[in-house]
Amino acid sequence: MTTVRRFLHAAIADFERDIDRIEDDLVQGEGYSKNVRLLAYAGYRNADTLRLKGRIVRYKKPLNAGEGMLTRLRAMMEIYNSHELAGVKVRLSAFGQAVELLSDEEGYFTFDLPLAQPLPLRTAWEQVIVSTPETESQKAEIEVPVLAPGTDNHWGIISDIDDTVVETGATDFVKNWRRVLIEQPRDRLAVPGASTLYKMIAEDHVSPARPFFYVSSSPWNLYGFITEFMELNAIPHGPMFLKDYGIDDNQLIKTGHDEHKLAAIETILSFYPGFRFLLIGDNGQKDVEIYAQAVENYGPRIAGVFIRDVSGTCREGAKAELLRGIEAAGIPTFCGAGFEDAVAIVKSFNLDRPLEAAKAVVEPAKTI
């Protein structure tokens, strides 16, 4: 990074911090209270480590989206306009331990708690407690779910979100701006076949029999929005790896789309070395390239690659060539406009019977 760029990034970061301090002094009576809001995102663990992320923001009474376009737009903008709080002490109580840390400049906190706790036989949601012991918050403490993958099958799912699970029209913002900026979770449409496919694999969307993880370049501000959509559409719950769009002293956005998603996938694969994963995404952005890299790096650890075709390029172009390369490597591959046909293909792969799927790579389906 050049000296000029470093100077500009540092100046913008300083300006953001100044605005936060000024706003902190002025917002009293503008719908804010002195309380903070403790946000904690679903965590995950293996036998040795528990990981959990969250954020501290200034509490503001939520807006009612209503039915009008302007009120809906304002409600959506409020989701993005969070007022983060740094330096707030957060405590995690789990498995007989209690550890504390401070929220960072963007209000985030990340626990990495050492454990000696074997994984359960079947995938389960466990509960831990997160609190702000020195700061008044909406609730004195909150229970946070932590995913513990079962040892009965040793395979799971890593899925994209936008245009893989929920229709966003992200590839054509001009055409689909209403969907992105105004529609609420109850208005959004699930990708055709996604709910059926995911429910078949999970068995129970609230307590999945197999672990689901979600990687996306959507910001952490949308965590609640996405969770509500999943519940409304019976999409299995799972820990999310979303993106921090904050500003720091070095860069405006901390990582690019492909770097963020590949790093998240590698984190999951490294955290569960004995597991194989089915990767599900779309070809509207960089999922195909990212998944091809994961196959190159991890080979048979990838149980299959399923791609939703939003760009009409399943059978031609560079992405189609990458999919053919994945298939040639012996990885079961699917690409189609929706996931209705993928249900039958999953059954042919025996991926709905995880004990068989974990033992060997099956013959690839020639659907590209």
Walk me through what this model shows.
There is one protein chain. The protein is of the alpha/beta class and 368 residues long. It has 3 domains: 1-30; 34-148, Immunoglobulin-like (Sandwich), CATH 2.60.40; 155-359, HAD superfamily/HAD-like (Rossmann fold). It has helices at residues 3-26, 69-80, 177-181, 194-202, 223-232, 257-271, 287-298, 317-328, 340-349, 354-359, and strands spanning 32-40, 43-45, 49-60, 89-94, 97-102, 108-114, 124-131, 141-148, 155-159, 212-219, 240-243, 276-282, 302-308, 333-336. The strands form 2 sheets. Strands 1, 2, 3, 4, 5, 6, 7 and 8 form an 8-stranded mixed beta sheet that branches. Strands 11-10-9-12-13-14 form a 6-stranded parallel beta sheet, with helices on both faces. The longest helix is centred in the first third of the chain and has 24 residues, at 3-26. The radius of gyration is 21 Å and the shape is globular.
